[in-house]
Write a structure and sequence with these properties.
Number of domains: 1
Strand content: 25-35%
Low-confidence stretches: 230-242
Mean pLDDT: 85
CATH class: Alpha Beta
Number of strands: 18
Shape: globular
CATH topology: Purple Acid Phosphatase, chain A, domain 2
Number of helices: 5
Strand order of the largest sheet: 1-2-3-4-5-6-7
Length: 242
């Protein structure tokens, strides 16, 4: 676990796109985009139909590893409003089992405004508590410090002469944006003006490596990393289209 501090709260980066909140024994993930492959299949673009199973399998592993009793899913849980009912049967069984065993909170997103908790869990537009707001899309003028998703931040850096792309967290004084967790999700450059406008300055992109967080002031473009052991970058590449 790699510590990440935000708004006087301690979180731990437990995967390239997931946080553990020890004070609430909760996992925080954003942008699962379940059933993205089946959505594209209906449009005639055939993708391997295993994205939902892969995403939920990874999430179940994090629940086991951390012992979390609560899961917050920060919106765009499904790729479209029909994805919840279309969820592949094996993935649906896995999800129903997890929501029955855990305090599971679905926060609605722009892709799944009509999510109903068909496979269990509670559905809310946003969650507030412990001096924080959890929502899908950042409000630049949020009254409370907020944690959100929506933008799928990633960064591309030069590591000893080669470029690698990694999902990252973006942290500002009152805003923390999570990267996308889903197996078929792409990303937006962390220094994109849309992200910077939400977070405000000063801000930084954060990658949780195996032993430590590495922080990059925003804006940045292909900043070189020469002091970090490149073996620590042995994390999954960002998947999907950019």
């Amino acid at each position: 676990m790699v510590p990440l501090l935000f708004a006087r709260h301690r979180f731990d980066i437990v995967a390239p796109a997931a946080l553990h909140w020890p004070a609430k024994n909760a996992l925080l993930v954003a942008d699962l985009h379940l059933e993205k492959a089946s959505f594209y299949a209906r449009q005639g673009q055939m993708l391997p139909p295993y994205d939902s199973q892969a995403t939920l399998e990874e999430l179940a592993g994090l629940v086991r590893d951390t012992g979390a009793t609560t899961v917050f899913c920060l919106g765009d849980n499904y790729h479209d409003d029909g994805g919840e009912a279309r969820l592949e049967p094996e993935a649906a069984r896995r999800l129903a089992g997890m929501t029955a065993a855990l305090d599971w909170i679905w926060i609605t997103g722009n892709h799944d405004r009509d999510v109903a908790g068909l496979w269990g869990g509670s559905v809310v537009d946003e969650w507030t508590g412990d001096g924080l707001a959890l929502r899908h899309q950042a409000f630049p003028s949020s009254r409370l410090p907020e944690i959100s998703g929506h933008y799928h931040p990633k960064m591309r850096v030069a590591v000893r002469g080669r470029h690698v792309s990694r999902r990252c967290f973006v942290r500002g004084p009152r805003h923390l944006i999570l990267p996308a967790f889903g197996a078929l999700t792409g990303g937006m450059a962390a220094h994109d003006p849309a992200i910077e406008a939400c977070v405000g300055g000063p801000a930084e992109a954060i990658i949780g490596l195996k032993e430590q967080p590495v922080c990059f002031p925003l804006p940045f473009v292909d900043r070189a990393i020469e002091t970090v052991d490149e073996r620590q970058f042995a994390l999954p590449l960002v998947t999907g289209a950019p």
